Structure formats: C-alpha cells, structure tokens
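Z., the sequence and structure:
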Amino acid sequence: MQKKILLAAGMLAVTAGLSGFLIQSGLTMNIHSEPANKTVVDAKDLKLPAGFSAKIIGSDLGTTRHIVVGKSGDIYVKLSKLKDGKGIYLLRDTNGDGVIDDQKLFGNYPGTGIKIKDGYLYSSSNKAIYRYKLNEKEEILNFDEPEKIVDGLLDHGRDNAKPLALDNNGNIYVTIGSYNDNCREAGSGKGMSPCSILDSAGGIWKFNAGKSGQTFSDGVRYATGVKNAVGIDWDFKTNSLFATIHGRGKFDDFYPKYYTPKQSAELPAETLYRLKAGDDAGWPYIYYDHFQNKKMMAPEYGGDGIKTAGEKAINPVAAFPAHLGPNALMFYTGNMFPAKYKNGAFIAFHSQSAELKKGYFVAFVPFVNGKAGKWEIFADNFAGVDLVKPTGPIEHRPCGLAQGPDGALYVTDDLNGTIFKIDYKKK
C-alpha cells in the first residue's frame, strides 16, 4: 500500500506502516510497506565451522542480490527484478530483539549494486548509478528523489549487473560485464580481433562518487580484460580494488579437437584479482587454467589447450573451480569472528560445477600482509540438496554479502529471496 506523508514543520514520528522513521521538515516520501516476517528460523542445514551459527531473518523477499547494513543495523537489499514496482528493500529490527519487524520497498528500478559510503547509500540499476542522502544513523532522508550520478552504462541484457565499490578518495567503481561470452564473431568460433567490446564493456570503470549528471564518457576505464566481475570490493587494508571474475563458457562446441567435454566443464578457473589502474586481466584473449596454474591462449585466438599467453596480463591472486559463479566479494573487518578471518575475503558462489557436483557455498580467502592464502569453504549446503544425487530442487543460491555493525555476516539468496545471518560465539 502506498503512503505519502508531508511534514510541514519540525520532526514527527511516522505512524502505522512507517513507524520508526523520523523525517526532516517538509520532506515528501512515497514507499511501499508490507508485513514483515516476524520470526527467526535457525538455518540448521548450513554447514559452518565450529562456533558459528546461522539464522534466516528474512524470506520470500524476491530476487535479493547485493546487500549492505548501516551502522544502526538497518539492512538495504537490492532486487534484480521489481517487486510491487520497487527495487530496494529496507529491513529493520525496531526493538532490538533480532527479528525483522518492519520492511519497506522503495526505488523504482531493478539492479544489483548497493553500498554505503560517506553519508550516502549508493545503488545501481543495469544502466545507471544513484545515491540517497543518509542521516548520522545511516537512515535515508528522502526515498523518492535519489540523485542520479551516472547514466548511460551499457546494457545488452546478458551479464548486465552493475556491482559497485568505493574508495576513500571520492571514487566509485562499477563493473560493465561483457554481453558476448568469448568475443566471438556471430555464428562462428572465430574471435573478434581486436575485441571491440572492450571499449565499453568487459572491464571496470571509475567515476566521481560525488558528482551528479555523469555519463559513460565521463568515466575512466580502470581495468580491462575483466569479462564479468559481479563481486567487487575495495580493500581498505591494502587500499586496492579486488574483483571476482566469472570465467568464460564452453570450449568443446567449436574446438572438440583440443578440448573434451570434461575439460570444457572443468575450465577455465573462476578468479580473484587485485586490480590497479590500467591493469589487464586478459579476457577474451586468454583464460586461466587452475590445473596448470598458467595463463592460456584462448582457442578463438589460436589456442589449443597447450599454448600459454598473456605476458602483459596480470595473474589472479586466487583461483577456484570452473562455473561456480562468484557473485559477491567482501573483506571482513569486524571483531566478532576469530582472528584468522580479520582482513580476509568472503566470496559468495552462486552456481555449481557440474563436473565436481559442488557449489552454492560461501568461501573464505585469508590474507596475510596483503597476500592471499589457501581458500576454504566457509558456509556450505545452501543448495539444501545432494548435488551428486539430487532429491529435489536447489533451495538457495548465495548472491550478496554484508557485514553488520556487530561483525555478523549477512548472506542473500536470489532464488527464494532469503537472508541469512551468520554469528559466532566462542565456546
């Protein structure tokens, strides 16, 4: 139900469906309220390290993608498909009992990216970036009129999510994924040479986080050769941008001479990169083979599964099995979890390796002195079914990650609109 409230002077407590909001004098607000799920369910099926526990704090919310939690505990979740005409959720525990008892929808655009930085909530559609002014509690002051800071980002429908990251110097970074999986010429296995897609996609662009009215031409291509980085995050410990990249698709469709169906299912690696200005991760000309730990020449450009290439392309800092779909990246800075997790990276994997029969988990990559260590599975069994011999449908696909003010880890699922909260208690 739509509620429009105009406050003429002072500050008034908003009643009924808008309880808990304090809104500045003269502010108009139009958002959709709906009953909240006022129960918390233990997520007993999740497999976690000793001392950790998980609860489901929200369900049936729609296509919940990336997520961020404000300093007061307010949860903002981006939806990739509109629900009741809106694309962002605000979830709130108004009495501090750990239960979401107030949930509201706002923003009339779908998308993936959402971040909080320097007094603003930033969010993206598949073509633009917006921001909302926050108060000192990181609560939105005006839901109806976000400031559009960037417009005209490429959207061809495929791999069109626009995840976001922000640094401490007033810059915002946005992925523009490639709409052509291998930069092949239409109907053939031949690669475009050069790959003209890289002029406007297949990379990460940098814009001014505080300037409205920017277009694509105002941005700077920060890193190229990045096929589709749905997970990006700025690591303030090393003051650098990191990105998880979805690997390319099949090899054996046009190149059965060089790749078996099994090899096509096992390659290439999903990768984690540390990116500096001007870096090239090598797509589409190369791919990373995690069995050989080498950058290989792509078959569209003369590769045969043996030839290495990419002397000027950077190496990943970590590599994972193929086709797992890394959809979120978050560096952990909280104090709730044991010390080994401090300044390390969590990654939400959204899909599965059909060959390994493994997937739908959250992984952890430790970082020591800025260098990545051996990765491990942190939270498993979001699928809720045996992937080797499935007895039913997949239940959840991890998609977004966020850290709460208390150090808890939040995980979204964009299949059934579920939000998990993972806590730790020392025994």
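The helical segments are 261-266. Confidence is low (pLDDT under 50) at residues 1-29.

Let me know what you think.
H.
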